[in-house]
Amino acid sequence: MPTTSENRAYAHEVGIRLRTIRAQQGRSLQQVEALSRGQWKVAALGSYERGSRMLSMQRLAALAEFYGVPVHDLLPGGRPGPLPPRAARVVLNLPALTRVPTDDAGPLRRWVVEIQRERGDYAGQVLSIREGDLRTLATLYALDPNQLLDKLQQWEVLDSMSSIANASDSA
Q: pLDDT tens across 99-112, in order?
């Protein structure tokens, strides 16, 4: 039988996944409450995302349906690869990317368009970059990933949801 600390850790992992899915869809907690016509209250969602409140399987399934994702994507150990660690989360601000000259951001913009097409998500204001994608993009720019992160910071295209150490500090 799981201990209380194991339950808390599990709830925290589910919360990270819930927040990641919501952020990938570019929605605030308030927008989720409005779009769900009050089915999902800001206070409850925030508690679920912080892991301070447990979700029943029925509520988790309903929330997964609302977000349009399989339930197993919200469960720790339920997907082939783990979510990227929070310390290395890279999120692009797509409106900011449009302000970077095409000569600089052309390859990145083409990649974003392809990812949006693949996901069928053209309304998003942000886009998460997975670790493998970051390495691929760095190769396109003939840089290492830390140098690309420095460049993204210079271009001011990292969204506030990004949580990266100063890239030059980790080099």
A: 999 888 999 999 99
